[in-house]
TrEMBL record:
<dbReference type="GO" id="GO:0000287">
    <property type="term" value="F:magnesium ion binding"/>
</dbReference>
<protein>
    <submittedName>
        <fullName>Phosphoglucosamine mutase</fullName>
        <ecNumber>5.4.2.10</ecNumber>
    </submittedName>
</protein>
<dbReference type="GO" id="GO:0005975">
    <property type="term" value="P:carbohydrate metabolic process"/>
</dbReference>
<keyword id="KW-0460">Magnesium</keyword>
<dbReference type="InterPro" id="IPR005845">
    <property type="entry name" value="A-D-PHexomutase_a/b/a-II"/>
</dbReference>
<keyword id="KW-0597">Phosphoprotein</keyword>
<keyword id="KW-0479">Metal-binding</keyword>
<dbReference type="InterPro" id="IPR005841">
    <property type="entry name" value="Alpha-D-phosphohexomutase_SF"/>
</dbReference>
<dbReference type="Pfam" id="PF02879">
    <property type="entry name" value="PGM_PMM_II"/>
</dbReference>
<dbReference type="GO" id="GO:0006048">
    <property type="term" value="P:UDP-N-acetylglucosamine biosynthetic process"/>
</dbReference>
<feature type="domain" description="Alpha-D-phosphohexomutase alpha/beta/alpha">
    <location>
        <begin position="8"/>
        <end position="140"/>
    </location>
</feature>
<dbReference type="GO" id="GO:0009252">
    <property type="term" value="P:peptidoglycan biosynthetic process"/>
</dbReference>
<dbReference type="GO" id="GO:0008966">
    <property type="term" value="F:phosphoglucosamine mutase activity"/>
</dbReference>
<dbReference type="InterPro" id="IPR005844">
    <property type="entry name" value="A-D-PHexomutase_a/b/a-I"/>
</dbReference>
<dbReference type="InterPro" id="IPR050060">
    <property type="entry name" value="Phosphoglucosamine_mutase"/>
</dbReference>
<dbReference type="InterPro" id="IPR036900">
    <property type="entry name" value="A-D-PHexomutase_C_sf"/>
</dbReference>
<dbReference type="GO" id="GO:0004615">
    <property type="term" value="F:phosphomannomutase activity"/>
</dbReference>
Length: 460
């Protein structure tokens, strides 16, 4: 059993003893802490909630609703929804905040509470720390019987979200319709099965095949949209001679594509392609996190903009995007953030922009992918011995490579001409992640191996 209390939310495996897994008592405690924090902020008592298709979703939803209304908060429940849809609804409803019941790309035994502020954006680290403290002290007071909150369901937001995508100036519905795309969708038994086909239909895509379309949370494969988990999608694209495959994660904030020949477009390249398309119409800056491909920097410079890296984590990407007034940004895991729609990763606007790009270029996906520089990211991790001081290790590595450009915003990133390596500790487990990128796969692996050797040397 696992329970991970982080500043961005509460994640855990369902069942077990309180405090060891995400038990009903833990759900109530952390929801009560979040609700109490909202009540301290303002007189606004409205909270929006929505959930993905997980097996435990309905149980967790009932606990969250009862706790929030018990505090005297009014709940607007979107039911089966997506993370970006809840984010949009918080703003549209002028709510105080929102909770998304999803463990994102984690396997079926996990669930989580993702916490939003009144802007429909993830709460900051500082706010998260306050909520964790309230939970630890169980510092909440429930409402008396005359002041219980009001509950209502609202199923209109899928259509509102789709309309926002259709009305977005850079989404070219006519061009998409004219291309008569044939698309296969991997909906991984969650809410993407409801939202993605509805969006494609609205965009004029007539031929859509949906794999794993039953929303039952019994994920037919590991739900993280990585190449090794998308073999069924790849095979179906080939078998049916489709133009592309689309994969999303269970809460529909990550997006990746399969090319017409069944090969992976690459989740790192979702943002690259969308940014390339957006920057042709809107000059401006881009942001991605320090662990994402430098292909984004290449297309940004080519289009006359400036690229800015941020610390890893959506809240950090958003903060940096606001600082540098970015026109597009996101994360290399297939997360697209379109700031003038809303500041959150959103697979639906990602699909609208990506299909517009493909439709306008009149090329197939493989040709578009081949038009971008090829980079390889080697992703590795080292388990830490107990009591190891990571700061000391990073200092020693920094000393060893003192002649190279270094970024210390989030762990340690060292640049070598066209290559880089990024080291950072995990928020959730005792490891150091080591990501290295190069235009040559072997070089990327070798850079990572060399740094891992340094870490081992400095650990002892």
């Amino acid at each position: 059993m696992a329970l991970i209390k982080s500043i961005s939310g509460i994640r855990g495996t369902i069942g077990g003893k309180p405090g060891e897994g995400l038990s009903p008592l833990d759900v109530v405690k952390f929801t009560a802490a979040y609700g109490s924090w909202l009540l301290k902020q303002s007189d606004n008592k409205k909270v929006v909630i929505g959930r993905d298709g997980r097996i435990s979703g309905e149980m967790v939803r009932q606990l969250v609703v009862a706790t929030l209304t018990g505090l005297g908060l009014d709940v607007v429940d979107l039911g089966l929804s997506t993370t970006p849809t809840v984010e949009i609804a918080v703003k549209a409803e002028q709510a105080a905040g929102g909770i998304i019941l999803t463990a994102s790309h984690n396997p079926k035994e996990w669930n989580a509470l993702k916490l939003l502020n009144g802007e429909g954006e993830f709460i900051s680290g500082e706010e998260g720390a306050i909520i964790l403290d309230l939970a630890a002290r169980e510092d909440f007071t429930f409402a008396d019987v005359n002041k219980l909150g009001v509950y209502r369901q609202d199923d209109t937001y899928m259509q509102k979200h789709i309309d926002m995508v259709l009305n977005y100036p850079l989404v070219d519905v006519e061009a998409i319709k004219a291309r008569n795309f044939k698309v296969v969708v991997d909906a991984v038994n969650s809410t993407g099965a409801i939202f993605v086909p509805a969006l494609l239909k609205a965009l004029g895509v007539e031929e859509v095949t949906v794999l794993f379309d039953e929303v039952n949370g019994r994920f037919s494969h590991n739900p993280e949209p990585l190449p090794e988990n998308l073999t069924a999608l790849s095979n179906e694209v080939n078998k049916s001679s489709a133009d592309m495959g689309i994969a999303v994660d269970p809460d529909v904030d990550r997006l990746c594509f399969v090319c017409d020949d069944g090969s992976m477009f690459g989740e790192e390249y979702t943002l690259v392609a969308v940014a390339d398309y957006v920057l042709k119409s809107r000059k401006g800056n881009t942001v991605s996190n320090l662990s994402s491909t430098q292909a984004l920097k290449d297309v940004t410079l080519k289009n006359g903009g400036e690229y800015h890296p941020s610390a890893v984590g959506e809240v950090n990407v958003v903060r940096k995007m606001k600082e540098v007034n970015a026109v597009i940004g996101g994360e290399g895991n297939g997360g697209i953030i379109v700031p003038d729609l809303h500041y959150g990763r959103d697979a639906l606007i990602g699909i609208g922009l990506f299909l517009s790009h493909v439709a306008q270029t009149k090329k197939n996906l493989k040709a578009i992918r081949n038009s971008y520089p090829d980079y390889f990211i080697s992703k590795n991790k080292i388990e830490l011995d107990k009591g190891v001081n990571v700061a000391t290790i990073f200092d020693k590595i920094r000393g060893k490579y003192k002649n190279q450009p270094v970024n210390t915003e989030d762990g340690l990133k060292i640049e070598f001409d066209r290559d880089w390596v990024h080291l950072r500790t995990s928020n959730t487990e005792p490891i150091i992640r080591i990501y290295a990128e190069s235009q040559n796969e072997t070089t990327a692996d070798n850079i990572a191996k060399r740094i891992m050797q340094d870490i081992r040397e400095f650990m002892h």
